[in-house]
Amino acid sequence: MKLTLHVWRQKAANDPGTFEKHNVEADEHMSFLEMLDVLNQTLIEQKKEPIAFEHDCREGICGACSMMINGRPHGPLNGTTACQLHMRHFKDGDQIWIEPFRAKAFKVVRDLVVDRSSFDRIIQAGGFISVNTGQAVDGNTIPIEKERSSSSMDAAACIGCGACVAACPNGSAMLFTAAKAAHLGILPQGEVEEDRRVLSMVTQMDKEGFGRCSNTYACEAECPKEISVTNIARLNRAYLKASLRSDL
Amino acid sequence: MKILDGKVPPGPIAEKWENYKSTIPLVAPNNKRRLDVIVIGTGLAGASAAASFGELGYNVKCFSFHDSPRRAHSIAAQGGINAAKNYQNDGDSVHRLFYDTIKGGDYRSREGNVHRLAEVSTNIIDQCVAQGVPFAREYGGLLENRSFGGVQVSRTFYARGQTGQQLLLGAYQALSRQIGLGTVDMYNRHEMMDIVMVDGKARGIIARNLLTGKLERHSAHCVVMATGGYGNVYYLSTNAMLCNVSAAWRAVRQGAYMANPCFTQIHPTCIPVSGDYQSKLTLMSESLRNDGRVWVPKRKEDAEAIRQGKKSPNDLKEEDRDYYLERRYPAFGNLVPRDVASRAAKVACDEGFGVNPTGLAVYLDFAAAIQRYGLSEANTQGNKNPDAETIRILGEAKVEELYGNLFEMYEKITGDNPYKTPMMIYPAIHYTMGGLWVDYNLETNIPGLFALGECNFSDHGANRLGASALMQGLADGYFVIPYTIGTFLSNDIRTSRFSADSEAFMAAEKAVDDRLKGLMNIKGNQSVETFHRKLGHIMWNYCGMARNAEGLEKARTLIRALREEFYKDVFIPGTDNDFNPELEKAYRVSDFLEMGEIMILDAYNRNESCGGHFREEYQSEEGEAQRNDDAYTYVAAWEWKDTSTEPVMHKEELKFENVELKTRSYK
Lengths: 248, 667
Known about the structure:
CATH architecture of the largest domain in chain A: Orthogonal Bundle
Structural class of chain A: alpha+beta
Strand content of chain B: 5-15%
CATH superfamily of the largest domain in chain A: Alpha-helical ferredoxin
Radius of gyration of chain A: 20 Å
CATH superfamily of the largest domain in chain B: FAD/NAD(P)-binding domain
Distance between the termini of chain B: 39 Å
Strand content of chain A: 5-15%
CATH architecture of the largest domain in chain B: 3-Layer(bba) Sandwich
Number of domains of chain A: 2
Number of strands of chain A: 7
CATH topology of the largest domain in chain A: Fumarate Reductase Iron-sulfur Protein, Chain B, domain 2
Structural class of chain B: alpha+beta
Strand order of the largest sheet of chain B: 5-2-1-9-17
Oligomer: heterodimer
CATH class of the largest domain in chain B: Alpha Beta
CATH topology of the largest domain in chain B: FAD/NAD(P)-binding domain
CATH class of the largest domain in chain A: Mainly Alpha
Helix content of chain B: 25-40%
């Protein structure tokens, strides 16, 4: 199939950036990123700068790939990262617009690569259970209801790609933050420090320049791991409860 | 040639670690604060080590070439992690896990290390549960297990099909906690370019800030490498795109030995290659072999008709299918170890029974499992006489619960629905058992340089069992290195911090800079990718699933010629003092071009078939691997100076005092 790509090119964060047009020939069995590999190979052969984009596992789990494809984070397929998107979902003659994830807290590094280190800092603020190596008791001394463990796993499936932020009109990181708070807070091991955790993670999230959540649910719709907005409701409750405490 | 000492402590195997642990010199808390440790890599081994060092009070600098420590390739492990908990009461024990691992590794690993691994396996599960890893649970709330290839007990713990992700997030969170507390300085998007040696010891690194291209000098009292395996030397593998050997290879160029480099693992269940543009291969978890049955058509005509699209697999009756693993290995059936399953698939395809257009694929079929689960589920619901449709619906629901994400991934990539037609699979490079030579302390032959996880060679011998990579990464990081590093650092409590401006550091930085400028200045005509693909072809064709002396000789000539061509004709766009992913690829490929040669040499030297190393000259009449224990019960540790000096092989003799060397049989 023949496609016309409009790819965002931007040298650095303070560079204005622009769309660049490329005609490519693709095979329906290729992944979207392999289609970009082929284009990059052509650019290199012409001694031009290839398009910079982040990628690694190409199995939809590392969370490195991050691009808007026709206005949607990771492209048109629900529950699918850009690396798992295959060209059979496009047709001959399509125009495809490719842009970086855009948000105040995600500065552009180059072309489609953005800086998502703000996510790491939210986790560093409290997205963990405070247990040192060697302090653990036998795994089976903490029985956990199957359903409870399963909802924790649903939230823990987050790959930290940032699609939720890119999808949100406010550039909010609520789904990312809420998913981590839920993963840990649902489990008995993580319940102990939940109040402290949600307060510090939310404070850090605000400090990073992410916007407020106004319940558009765009994050859930675009999340490649289909993480539910009920986690946000849960975080709001947990945050309210924690902020009523006078000792924290 | 030197004879290397693995420094395994004396005493009965089950007491070695316990006794040794209580005699390792300690570093007092006030001294830990004065000692700097560099950790390279943030996969399971690196993140768990860095977090544990931080908790202990060392000053840690941790480096990752990713944008975040959460992205290392450990994250992609699907199936699970082994531990000798014996929660299932099915006869498991530390000794059995030890024995299975030694046997699975075809008697080419070090007894002492493997026993220690089996011992600490149980602590890992406890630690991960405490961190909040959401392992699968039974209705009673206790931990669930499943079985994996090469063993007859259920000892694998898992978190859906995302066990690696959940374990890595556990380690990442522990590491993040230490970063927040200020005990670990995290350097994201920084790549280790070289080790800096001061008075014969590893005392720092030269790192490249990948965003700016600037070189940085970092000093420390010791350096811990957890930089993964070298599977991407084959270009196509199940490894993530950025996995590379460069950090380990730079250590080799500084004098570290590369042990058993020819021991590479080929995973039997991967999605077959679809075209020339292919950038990587995707693994389908080994756990699928619990319920999937592997088969090819019995008749070549049927295989031919399927390849041409004239027949579909569902047209073939039961008696027209050859479930070759069940036929050849009745005791283990579809759950034979990876090396055995991979070779059997190759044999079937080489004989003309392959089932996709390229002839390089076999079926992995879930119809029987769907039937079995459906019937059992219907019975549970009180329906004693279910119709076929009910059975199918209930059976598919159970299979979805077990493997849903894998089936979905398969469908996304291939466009086929594996609930309706069998999956097509073919072996692919997945893991490398070889790696930097380390002693019992996980220290390389360079004092002060340690290697953990897939980056070292020590635990898996010639073949790794499923769900053991996660176990080893976390064992090394959480429960081994925090102790054994004391053997080195306890001698350094009076050593003050090293200046990163000393002559050694300046010279190392200049050497790196010269190397990068040299690559940029080649200004040839071919992309780095082109060379990497060519290298991959050489390695896969001559040093892949089957090897022979003639092919290996040829491969060495080819790889040397390719290396020469690379240094004449590679083209790298951009500049070296800027964000430049093509330059990163270039120096990684230049290291692969040397690593490949040492793999070939090692495969040529080892005149036997064992585990993942199959030399066609050494096989039984039935096509099973033939070891030569008299001549090759040793670790080959290679010293490589530069491309113009012939590499030297050193040996560590392997002593088996607790298991009897037998022909590995899964029949």
